[in-house]
Specification:
The structure is a single chain. The protein is an alpha+beta fold and 158 residues long. It has 4 helices and 4 strands, in the order H-H-H-E-E-E-E-H. The chain has a 4-stranded antiparallel β-sheet with strand order 1-2-3-4. Helix 3 runs parallel beside helix 4 (149-156).
Length: 158
């Protein structure tokens, strides 16, 4: 009967061969998370620096094409009806009268969303689309029920 002294060595070599791939995927995911958080952090800092007075609004500047199109529906609706179909508060701050000096915490949440926890007690969740170099805001969760800004605009501004 033959003994397989090399079997443990082959298994060990096989594990080491797989491990770098898993580590690379994890490192890539972590790097993407860093880029996502940096994008949202930069967006908030720009809004703070200009106290929400950017034109177009800072969210639109960081939005991907789909979110920009939904935001354009809002402008088109207003031009036609002289009425707003938007939410009645500043989405970034979940407030009608934002406190730009309040503390914020940026972190990763479930499903790859960036969570911004505001000192006032609100959490805002951003879905981002990314390439190798940059990310853009794809959508913003307006509440914990999963309603998003784009869904609201697409429904209310038609």
């Amino acid at each position: 009967m033959q003994t397989y002294h090399s079997l443990p060595i082959l298994l060990t070599v096989g594990l080491f061969a797989i491990n770098p791939v898993a580590a690379t995927a994890t490192e890539s995911s972590q790097a993407l998370d860093v880029i996502k958080i940096a994008t949202v952090t930069k967006m908030y800092q720009q809004d703070i620096d200009h106290e929400g007075m950017d034109n177009p609004v800072v969210l639109e500047q960081y939005a991907n094409a789909d979110l920009q199109a939904a935001m354009q529906l809002e402008q088109d609706y207003f031009d036609k009806t002289q009425m707003s179909c938007n939410v009645d508060y500043d989405v970034l701050w979940n407030s009608q009268d934002p406190d730009y000096t309040q503390d914020k915490k940026f972190s990763m949440a479930d499903k790859g969303l960036v969570q911004v926890s505001l000192a006032q007690g609100s959490n805002i969740y951003y879905d981002l689309t990314c390439n190798d170099k940059e990310c853009q805001i794809a959508d913003v969760s307006l509440n914990e029920d999963g309603e998003t800004l784009s869904k609201h605009l697409l429904e209310a501004c038609r």
